[in-house]
Amino acid sequence: ALPIYIRNIRYLPSATKPYNLLFKLFSKMEYFIITTNVDHQFIKAGFSEDKIFAPQGNYGRFQCIRPCSEALYENEDGVEAM
User: Fold this and answer.
1) pTM of the model
2) Cβ(61)–Cβ(68) below 8 Å
3) 6 phi and psi, to 5 degrees?
4) Taking the CB of residue 68, how many other CB atoms lie within 10 A of it?
5) 47 close to 23: Cβ distance less than 8 angstroms
6) CA end-to-end span of the chain
7) Which helix (H) or strand (E) holds 53?
8) If you compute the radius of gyration of the chain from its CA atoms, what whole number of angstroms results?
9) How far is 8 from 29, CA to CA, in rounded Å?
């Protein structure tokens, strides 16, 4: 069930209207975004990933369950395979 949820929340939908409007308003300004969103909506709308801090992570990456490394792993292929 989790891979289907991740697929439906993270990979299938395009950016929604509020995020597209925010991008229109702020894309020409200096910005830094702190968000608890895990669905990648800011990135999908066009905001630069290096200007976004998401302390709760995002559904597009896996990481070790134990702190064995700082590595994050893109998961789209794995989610689709599951």
Assistant:
1) 0.80
2) no
3) -60, -45
4) 8
5) yes
6) 9
7) strand 52-53
8) 14
9) 31
